[in-house]
Automatic annotation (TrEMBL):
InterPro entries: FA58C, Galactose-bd-like_sf. Pfam families: F5_F8_type_C. SUPFAM superfamilies: Galactose-binding domain-like (SSF49785). Residues 587-607 are annotated as: Disordered. Residues 567-666 form the F5/8 type C domain. It comes from the Bacteria. This is F5/8 type C domain-containing protein.
Amino acid sequence: MLINRRTFLVATGVLTLAPEVSVAQLKDTYYEVLLRHTRWAETQYDATAGRYRRTDFGFAVVLGNAVLLTRGTYDAALAGVEKDVLEAHTLATIKHFAASNVLAGGAEWGKTLFWDTTFQSYFVLAARLLWPGLDAATRANVEAIARGQADYTTSLGTANDPRSGSWTPNGLTGGHRGDTKLEEMGVYAQALAPGLAWHGDGPGWREAFGRWSRNEAGLPAADLANPSTVDGVAISANTATNLHDTFIVENHGSFGPHYQEELWRTSGRNAVHFLLAGRPLPEVLTRQPNGELLWRTILATMSDAGEPLMPMVNDREHLYGRDVIPLAFRSTVLRDPMAARAEAALASRLLAYQAHPPVHRLAKFSGEAKYEPEARAELAISYLLHELRPPAEPVSEQDFFTRAAITIDHGADPGLLTHQSAAAWAGTVTKPGFTKLAWQPSHDDWLFKISGATPMLLPPTPVTGRDTTAYRKVRDGFDATASLLRFADGFAGTATLPTGTIVCALPLPGRVDVHNLAIAGMPGLSGSRTYTGSAGRVTVKAREGFRVDELTFPATTARHVRMTGITPHPTYGYSLFDFETGTRPAVTTASSSDPGYEPGRATDGDPATRWAVARAERGRADSWIAVDLGAATTVSRVRLRWETAAAVAYRVETSADGAAWTTVAEYPRPDLSTPGWLDVDGRAGFVARSAEPITVRGDTITVPAGLVEGYVRADLRKIAAEPAPDCPSGVLASTADGFLSLFNLTGADVTGTVRLRGTRLYRGTQVTTRDGTEYALTLPAATARVEAPWFTARGIPPGITAVVHDARSLTFRGGPAAFVLTHRDGHSLPVVLGRGERTVTFPLATPFPVNDLALGRVTFPDSVLPPGMSDPAAAVDGSQRTAWTPGRDGRMVVDLGAVHAIADVSLKWTHGRPPPHTVTYSLDGRTYGPAASARYVAVSTQWKPGYASLQSVVVTPSA
């Protein structure tokens, strides 16, 4: 088999990277992954009971088994079990659990919406695949499950399931702050799908299925007037508020794209039932209200592995097996070429991922095996979707990230300012508990650790003030973000540039943790990382298994030895299997411990027992564990074997009396300390504008306080040799990649001069000097901004004043002088300046920034358009070649993103007769009328065929 040979080559090192899987190979890849995963699945088989286990719904492995038994070419050597044995195990399990389901008269499982119905969906599907091999009683039980669940779910109306405890969709109101109800509404819908698909319409089934499915993504206020219908029901009938108005989903108090994917994860589970049963798909599965705006936010956080990044979730990153199905659904059912590219990228990693310990598992990095049956089932469904519907043709990876490029400020409440560029992803995260500047150069989510509470660059403390700007190419001429964050004890600034470069102004040293694993076939994960700086080069090998620290120090006499923490594991604090000094201690004590993890368990000689800090103390930095050796002893080494909760930093102390302590060793010791710049494994690098060094300690990089720039790939030595801008007190500035990033790290407005090298000219006023310019700065308190290098003046003498008005024109004075002026787009003009003033204009250039509040903004309707209407986004895309066709009496709404004072709204129509129309305004997206200030602008028409289309909506703010 070709795939087996490829896997062999990767495993033996002949092939260092797994080759990309094509769309044509997806089914074969999924089949092989299922075969290999069967070795894990068989660990769920209870030979005594004669069936797979009930624990954590282990019996859901039957769906993957059913696909292997009824499709493809079964390979017993890969699966680790003969086909007839697997079939016997599977059929016996289906027979047992069909009879033991509550809906079939049993008492073991089922009916409960959370989470039995998810596994019922898998179970019913497995049974249908193996239908010819089931006895009549089992078939009747399976039918009773599908019908009974649909009846039960329908009977609840919009009420909670009394069997499900506190789980609730919150009726049809939903929710978006802290705990989206998208997932919960999806569960109600998927509880109905098997009944509808296999048994047709029962009383109220279809209505209930449509109601929950339509409301999953929620309905923004501005879309309430959308006259579109889905399955014959008006979108305006939807009531759920499951997402923020920036189309971001929060769950468990954080932003997690994994939960945004639930819309298509649920849809994939549901669609496969209808497709396999030969029934038409309900329209709500192919026309999902506002689903495309939700998908836009997924693309805005997508990695090169086809998996969205998780900057605020601890245990959902790298759940490869569970992230396939949303992509497979979008690729096959929605025919989305972007999803097809992401799916192919993820599939290309699956076999390499699966071969990494613990071998065969598909959701291994969550730390919980309970997700394995579900991952297996969803991979099986993905296989079936590709069998039943041809996938879209994927775009190229380069085209993918070019199309996905966008900046989004999701707002202070979600706490995420994101920038997806062609070269990198970056996000300034200000959600309580997750503060960081997350950065993924080349979209590589196996380079830097960014998930959950893992700190990165910014102080991981609460943000008390947030000033942010998201620059958009259509409006500003370039994509970038800038933020100035206020903390209780200072300020920090961030900027992200269109080149993928980041800039941060740090009040304290910043930390970056590096993934360092050996996963054959995964780019970059070769088992070591190499760091290069001006002080030399060091290679840090990956640690296999739990970390063991061997610390030696000059021999000292002491009775007491202790480990005192400096920086705990960001999630779990401190936990040790072994604390050895060479002498068995008489007593072991600690600052705290969890029940069952007392301090003595780290010194009892049993490698399986351990000490752990109390759960409530996990965030405490200075937790400690100490040994009393019983008498004064010579000590020169300490060996610490850590659990996952390994200290990031700690010190070893000794004492004669247990009261006065002396530090004898510290961890980590720098592997490399280098001034100026650091290259990280040839994949990214940092330049620090500081006299303090950048240090590498194991898999942690520490950058100094002050201005730090991060580059995807660049000549770091050359960049570091360039002097930093000279700024007024309290201001830091960077000219990384030619852009001028400015940060006012004070609580007062600052005016003054920024001295720059070179002859790049930025918006505003600057005077040329012998080696650069003096830029006149006015920067309000606690703000940041980015200016593009619109012009470069070659051969310009000192003493010339240049006032850049916008990206098209600028005025010079102070001549005489002659020089060449080059625009950022490459066009050049010779300039001859006399003693008077001269304004130079590039006529073909756009005068960025464009003073239009509507430009590039979200428009409604979006994902489901009324008949005859084209996408209203064409009226705000800045292009003269596109236009919005309203359709009969069509209406569009522009969301300006915030409330603005409005001076004027100008409409430009294509050639022909403009339709009768009105412009109205709204603060809340619900009530429209005349207004001087608004967030929403609506254009209502009495359009009929033959009228002109709307080329642009321009909203001018009041001065």
